[in-house]
Amino acid sequence: MEHTGFFPPHGGVSLKQLAEHLGVELADEASSEVVIRSIAPVYRAGEGDICYILSRKNRVELETCKASAIICLPALKSFIPEHIPVLLSKKPHTDFALTGALLHPQAMRPVTFTSNPATISPAAVVDATAKLEANVGVEPGAIIGAGAEIGEGTYIGANALIGPGVKIGRNCSIGGGASVLCAYLGNGVIIHNGARIGQDGFGYAPGPRGMIKIVQIGRVIIQDNVEIGANTTIDRGTMDDTVIGEGTKIDNQVQIGHNVRIGRHCAIVSQVGIAGSTVIGDGVQIGGQAGLNGHIHIGDGAQIGAKSGVMNNIPAGERYAGLPARPLWDFLRESAEIAKRSGARDKKDGSAEHD
């Protein structure tokens, strides 16, 4: 693989060490000392690279694969060329992700701009009443407001804004240009460049001379190990809190309205919009560009398809899709019927033109 220099290859991990780190089986002990330095897709993996496959669909790419190792399910081992060592895994996608984190830890958080990210730049503005623990890094142009508290090992990117009274836990990363206001963050939180956390939500009451702004005096609570993508916005609560649960991952350009409560370990993809006061359970997955109405409840483990319009509650464990969103199989059945009727109509019109 040709490396660009942004994320250079690792110094090297032997397959034996990697197998022990992942808790997987190395199919051939003779390859224990093969060195892995980076990750790559199957089609262009070369010496020192490791890749993974999930199905037989990769068979054609495997014919020319030059990887130093492949992670796969035991049932797929017979498809791997004999010259490529194999790590047998029950969860190859997850183990590949863990491998990437081991080989390229610097790619797991927003990029730092100084040689020593655990220092406070003289070009940053840190209020005298702010409390910063040891090894906090603050890049040039960042502003830390009065009474803010930032935990050990946290990094604040260039031109980031940390508002008065904000509390940020330990080992967090706040990307460049991000703003964090009226918020409490747990440990291990990652906020990418340009995200906006804690600004006032969209609330107005009609008056005789137009719309009257409703004050927003709540907070944003972000629990441990949450990751929030670039240019995502999370509004503070009107009077209560907007809450993002532990381990939840939010993509770029997502809009989360005031008083929304999102559970633990959810996954929300790019350009999703969630209106105010909606409650989302644990383990919910929401596809890109879906829109959720306000004041509804999404049950634990529910899955919502991309571009869906969710107007009403969704029970726990259900899969919904479409506009308006309905149970997945209903949506697929209706879509198939529409396609069938459309095909029949096109065929009829074509016959009429021929006549």
Automatic annotation (TrEMBL):
A Pfam family assignment: LpxD
Pathway the protein acts in: Bacterial outer membrane biogenesis; LPS lipid A biosynthesis
GO cellular component: a single term: membrane
UniProt xrefs under CDD domains: LbH_LpxD
PROSITE patterns documented for this protein: HEXAPEP_TRANSFERASES
Residue positions of the active site: 258
Domain of life according to the entry: Bacteria
GO MF annotation: an example: UDP-3-O-[(3R)-3-hydroxyacyl]-glucosamine N-acyltransferase activity
Enzyme Commission code: 2.3.1.191
Gene3D superfamilies according to UniProt: Hexapeptide repeat proteins (2.160.10.10), MurE/MurF, N-terminal domain (3.40.1390.10)
Catalyzed reactions per annotation: a UDP-3-O-[(3R)-3-hydroxyacyl]-alpha-D-glucosamine + a (3R)-hydroxyacyl-[ACP] = a UDP-2-N,3-O-bis[(3R)-3-hydroxyacyl]-alpha-D-glucosamine + holo-[ACP] + H(+)
Assigned keywords, A-Z: Acyltransferase, Lipid A biosynthesis, Lipid biosynthesis, Lipid metabolism, Repeat, Transferase
GO biological process: lipid A biosynthetic process
InterPro entries the UniProt entry points to: Hexapep, Hexapep_transf_CS, LpxD, Trimer_LpxA-like_sf, UDP_GlcNAc_AcTrfase_non-rep
Residues covered by the UDP-3-O-[3-hydroxymyristoyl] glucosamine N-acyltransferase non-repeat region domain: 34-99
Function: Catalyzes the N-acylation of UDP-3-O-acylglucosamine using 3-hydroxyacyl-ACP as the acyl donor. Is involved in the biosynthesis of lipid A, a phosphorylated glycolipid that anchors the lipopolysaccharide to the outer membrane of the cell.
Quaternary organization: Homotrimer.
UniProt similarity note: Belongs to the transferase hexapeptide repeat family. LpxD subfamily.
Protein name (database record): UDP-3-O-acylglucosamine N-acyltransferase
Gene: lpxD
